[in-house]
Write a structure and sequence with these properties.
Elements (H helix, E strand, L loop, with lengths): L1 H27 L3 E8 L2 E2 L1 E3 L6 H18 L4 E3 L5 E9 L4 H8 L15 E7 L5 E9 L2 H14 L19 E6 L1 E2 L7 E5 L7 H9 L8 H13 L4 E3 L13 H9 L3 E2 L11 H4 L2 H4 L4 H19 L6 E2 L17 H23 L8 E3 L4 H7 L9 E5 L21 E6 L17 H13 L2 E8 L7 H12 L8 H15 L1 H20 L29 H22 L2 H36 L4 H26 L34 E6 L21 E2 L6 E8 L3 E8 L4 E3 L3 E5 L6 E8 L9 E2 L16 E10 L2 E10 L2 E2 L8 E2 L4 E5 L5 E3 L5 E6 L6 E6 L9 H7 L2 E8 L3 E9 L12 E6 L5 E4 L7 H9 L2 E9 L3 E9 L5 E8 L17
Parallel strand pairs: 3-4, 3-5, 5-7, 10-11, 10-17, 11-12, 13-14, 14-15, 15-16, 16-17, 19-27, 25-28, 29-34
Antiparallel strand pairs: 1-2, 1-8, 6-7, 6-9, 18-20, 20-24, 21-23, 21-26, 22-24, 26-27, 30-40, 31-34, 32-33, 33-40, 34-39, 35-38, 35-40, 36-37, 36-39
GO molecular function, one term: hydrolase activity
Organism: Algibacter lectus
Pfam families: GH115_C (PF17829), Glyco_hydro_115 (PF15979)
């Protein structure tokens, strides 16, 4: 009985001590201390255990070198405690004897995180061991947790994760102190987080082979060590190694797997590389036969077995299943889906048998991934039976839009789910391999959605050559580390601003963020790599641009000017960046912005060259020269990146023409030559041809109607035809016509051959129309009753010749519009930015919310939460769905097309689509469906344009006030813009600017 009592007593005493440790930790957590790392000529030591994991000593050495780069003094890394006023003690629970003693003595409590995945505690402890007065203690729940904790100190002393990869040179200091708040890190939001080095042929592989690792002539262990260091600094743990035929397979260099293990990096492989193999380069047809499982399974299994043996003792994620060679489908059974599914199930069964045999583990304990990519997604949807412990790794459509995510049943699978996402891609309809042109807010939105649908086990980012994807890599991995920091879309701008402040200082952070956001907005409207309007597979020549040059203010010129603005801001910022950060700014901001801008301007100026050459304008030659200048600037900057930056450190990393596609070439341009005497030419907004005096009653002699309620303005181009000098003057025939310039000189010798004149109206001086309650009924905005229309003209005079351009203004005095707050028709259409609703009402389960930083207008409106129930019939929609309302006013009536532009997302799973419903006034809702199927032509157009446009017919039953209503049908649908077309919308790439009443 006594023994039993003593046992109970000890049991309760142990329970008490555990509770006491938790209380101590709770009391200590949040406590702030100042800890000196370098003071005077002295620096602390880092005390580790030699028996701890190798990554602990690696992380300690990285941190010690960071201190050296800041102060010139390097902390010693020691394995035995000695008398000292202070040290850093770093180690893994169970792997460091001193850490374990601190736990046993009650000085360090780890109850809250012991045995958890990749967590760490940072705490200052007084008198931790005999002879040491104070210690900054980093204790990891596992080896990676310890490494992350050590490298958190690097962040605290101001060292960027991109210290080496983007040359973010640390600020020099003589003394180094950190303010330490006793903390315990949270568990990572995503278990396996990492990158895929892909399409490395033109950058990373050439740089490694010719510059960084010439002794190997390839991406080898030295290169991977630097990549793994970056991953540790970014708190990542997984890599899919480079796998193109230009690179030897990862496991062909035996040291690679040891380096990965030393850095505690988990190796995985892509959808096309089963069982950690690299089919592209490991499969030898001459000795191994066809890569077909139905006819050659034993040889294929031998390859799988060899790799399983080689990797059994190391951290890895085995991709199961099988595709054909070179990212192609298995050819077995051809279009027989059932045969493909059956064979794929057999492949997976055989793979798991091999894993069980070679690792001596139950397959349920071995990390495995199944990637339903391209045709494999169809097999999975067709009933493929997949063991529940395998992680489903969902993919985007290669252009940033998730194809599918786990449904409620799949979300309960023990293997969970993950994401494979692209910010770099080779394939149809067009590559984007040069710059990082994926909008970070779009990436946030899609990854937030994936996270909401429980894809939390594996996140892999296809980032090409790493450079120039630096920011998006960090954003992706920071989200994977702690998704709680990214609840709202605004978190991305906050994150970028914090990133910019860290890299370049608080003074310029806001302006840098604005430049990058504008660069991202323009790339969202059209990626730089898509500006030639060509496609691949097969490669086509440059096509006709969809951007208009004569409607809606000239889309081509607007885009030129937008890019010119960020060029000038970027160059100005570069001048003000401290010298030790200029190279970093060049890599992270300058080159990406200038490259995108100049690739755009190269094509935009070539479009202007062709357009103006057809009109015989001498300016065509200037536009052709500007196109060539833009091409030359890209060459110059790329050469600087490779040969001058950091004294050639990055030579061969940057190629301005991956795959040498037409978009990267210098466009052909036209040259206008004539010996004729100089004459004045005119071209008006709204007309493709120039004003032609030889044609009686030329159709191009009057500007579009100016609308009082939208405060319209239009341009007139004055240009020189022929050679020589001419003077011109513009004389409005009414005092209410205002010109940006009214006279000037054009001279072919000086290059001043064209001037754009903006025509505006002083509405206070225009005679008012009749005082009416409503606008006139009519079906053609150009045919306005005289009582509402005021006509005048502008005379253009040059060399004794006068050309008259008509000006008509629509200026009725309408009582109903006096205090009207809404949108109004302009020339037969009403244009609305979706975020500018008049009213919104929440639904039974969902409500409309704004996402900032994406879409054509930089804001889209979406229905959340994404888990809300879709409403699919008319009564459900009316009763349960959230609704947006937009008040608008028309001067015409009749049938209208309500065009809705949405973000081209895909339905996350069966039962949820990409639909909304629309109606004008009291009409029944009409469902609009944005879903595309597979790699259809509609899908190709959508991803090239980052937009999907669908229309619903409606009736505008009278001229006057109306309300457009948009209901959610499916949660998550994102509306960008709306265009109500009454028959007046002309061809344009984007919808015209909002016609909001002014």
């Amino acid at each position: 009985m006594k023994k039993l009592k003593y046992k109970s007593m000890f049991k309760y005493l142990g329970l008490f001590l555990t509770c006491f440790q938790v209380l101590v930790l709770t009391a200590q957590e949040g406590k702030t201390s100042e800890f000196s790392i370098v003071e005077g000529n002295n620096t602390i030591s880092i005390l580790i255990d030699k028996k701890d994991a190798k990554v602990v000593s690696i992380a300690s050495d990285i941190f010690a070198n960071d201190v050296l780069n800041i102060t010139g003094l390097k902390p010693s890394i020691i394995s035995k405690a000695s008398t000292a006023s202070s040290v850093i003690i770093a180690g893994t629970i169970g792997g460091n004897a001193i850490i374990d003693k601190l736990i046993a003595s009650g000085k360090l409590s780890v109850t809250a995180f012991k045995n958890d995945w990749e967590r760490y505690a940072i705490q200052v402890i007084e008198n931790p061991v005999k002879g040491i007065d104070k210690a900054l203690v980093i204790a990891g729940s596992d080896r990676r947790g310890t490494a992350y904790g050590i490298l958190e100190l690097s962040r605290k002393i101001g060292v960027s994760p991109w210290e080496w990869w983007a040359d973010v040179t640390p600020e020099k200091r003589k003394e180094l102190k950190v303010t330490v708040e006793n903390t315990v890190s949270k568990s990572p939001s995503v278990k396996y987080r990492g990158i895929f080095l892909n399409d490395e042929d033109w950058g990373l592989q050439r740089w490694a082979a010719l510059n960084f690792e010439p002794e190997i002539g390839d991406i080898g262990p030295k290169t991977y060590a630097k990549v793994f260091e970056l991953l540790l600094r970014l708190r990542a743990n997984t890599i899919w190694p480079a796998m193109h035929s230009s690179t030897k397979p990862f496991y062909s260099y035996p040291e690679n797997k040891f380096v990965a293990d030393n850095y505690a990096i988990v190796i995985g492989t892509s959808h096309a590389e089963p069982m950690l193999s690299n089919i592209n380069t490991e499969w030898k047809h001459d000795t191994m036969g066809e890569y077909r499982y139905d006819t050659n399974s034993e040889t294929i299994k031998n390859l799988f077995t060899k790799r399983a043996k080689e990797t059994a003792k190391y951290d890895g994620i085995y991709t199961v299943g099988m595709r054909g060679e070179h990212d192609s489908p298995m050819i077995v059974g051809e279009d027989d889906t059932d045969a493909q599914v059956n064979l794929l199930e057999r492949v997976i069964t055989d793979q798991r048998s091999i894993l069980k045999k070679e690792t001596k583990k139950n397959p349920t304990e071995i990390p495995q991934a199944f990637v339903p990519y391209k045709e494999v997604l169809n097999y999975y949807q067709s009933g493929l039976k997949l063991p529940e412990d395998i992680t489903l790794v969902w993919t985007d459509d290669n252009y940033g839009y998730m194809r599918q995510l786990s449904n409620p049943d799949e979300q309960t699978r023990p293997g969970g789910a993950g994401v494979y996402y692209h910010t770099s891609y080779w394939g149809r309809p067009h590559d984007y391999l040069w710059l990082n042109s994926t909008n970070p807010v779009l990436m946030w939105e899609e990854m937030s959605k994936a996270y909401e649908f429980q894809s939390r086990d594996i996140w892999i980012l296809n980032c090409g050559d790493i450079k120039p994807h630096e920011y998006n890599i960090e954003l992706f991995l920071d989200m994977a580390w702690d998704m709680d920091d990214f609840e709202k879309s605004s978190a991305v701008k906050t994150h970028m601003s914090t990133w910019a402040a860290r890299e370049f200082g608080k003074e310029s952070a806001s302006e840098i963020t604005d430049v990058l956001f504008e660069n991202n907005r323009l790339a969202y409207i059209r990626r730089p790599e898509f500006m030639a309007w060509s496609q691949v597979e097969p490669v086509t020549k440059e096509g006709e641009t969809e951007l208009t040059q004569y409607h809606y203010g000239d889309e081509v010129s607007e885009r030129i000017n937008s890019y010119q603005s960020i060029i000038e801001t970027t160059e100005h910022l570069y001048d003000g960046i401290p010298e030790h950060r200029k190279d970093a700014f060049y890599q992270l901001v300058y080159y990406p912005v200038i490259g995108a801008s100049k690739l755009n301007q190269k094509w935009l100026y070539s479009f202007k060259n062709k357009f103006t050459a057809k009109q015989g304008r001498q300016s065509a030659n200037a536009f052709g020269a500007l196109s060539k200048d833009a091409f030359n600037r890209i060459e110059k900057e790329t050469s600087y990146y490779n040969t001058k930056l950091q004294n050639g450190k990055w030579n061969h990393i940057m190629t301005m023409a991956p795959r040498f596609l037409p978009v990267f070439a210098q466009p052909a341009t036209s040259n206008v030559q004539t010996e004729e005497k100089a004459e004045l030419g005119l071209a008006l907004e709204g007309y493709q041809m120039e004003v032609n005096d030889d044609i009686i009653n030329s159709y191009a002699d009057v500007l579009p109607v100016f609308n009082r309620y939208t405060n319209s303005s239009y341009f007139i181009d004055v240009f020189v035809e022929g050679n020589g000098t001419l003077n011109w003057e513009a004389k409005p025939k009414a005092d209410w016509i205002k010109l940006s310039e009214d006279k000037g000189v054009l001279n072919t010798s000086s290059g001043e051959v064209e001037k754009r004149i903006w025509v505006r109206i002083d509405w206070d001086k225009v005679p008012k129309g009749e005082n009416k309650k409503e606008a006139p009924l009519g079906h053609d905005f150009q045919l306005i009753p005289p009582s509402f229309k005021v006509n005048s003209a502008i005379d253009f005079i040059s060399e004794g010749k006068t050309t008259t351009i008509g000006v008509s203004v629509y200026n009725p005095k309408l009582e109903v519009l006096k205090n009207y707050n809404g949108f109004v028709e302009d020339k037969g259409y009403v244009s609305i930015n979706a975020e500018n609703f008049t009213r919104k009402n929440a639904g039974k389960e969902a409500k409309w919310e704004l996402f900032e930083g994406m879409g054509y207008t930089n804001k889209v409106i979406t229905a959340l939460p994404r888990t809300a129930t879709p409403n699919v019939n008319i009564e459900e929609i009316k009763a349960n769905s959230p609704v947006l309302e937009y008040d608008f006013y028309t001067f015409n009536f009749g049938e209208a097309q309500v065009n809705l532009q949405a973000v081209p997302t895909h339905a996350p799973h069966a039962g949820i689509g990409v639909r909304c419903a629309v109606a004008i006034d009291d009409a029944d809702p009409v469902i609009v469906d944005f879903q595309t199927q597979g790699r259809s032509e509609a899908w190709k157009e959508n991803v090239l344009k980052n937009a999907t446009v669908k229309a619903a017919k409606q009736i505008v039953n009278k001229a006057g006030a109306h309300t457009l209503k948009i209901w959610m049908v499916d949660p998550g649908v994102m509306i960008d813009q709306v265009l109500i077309d009454l028959g007046g919308w002309k061809a344009s790439y984007a919808f015209p600017k909002e016609t909001v009443k002014k």
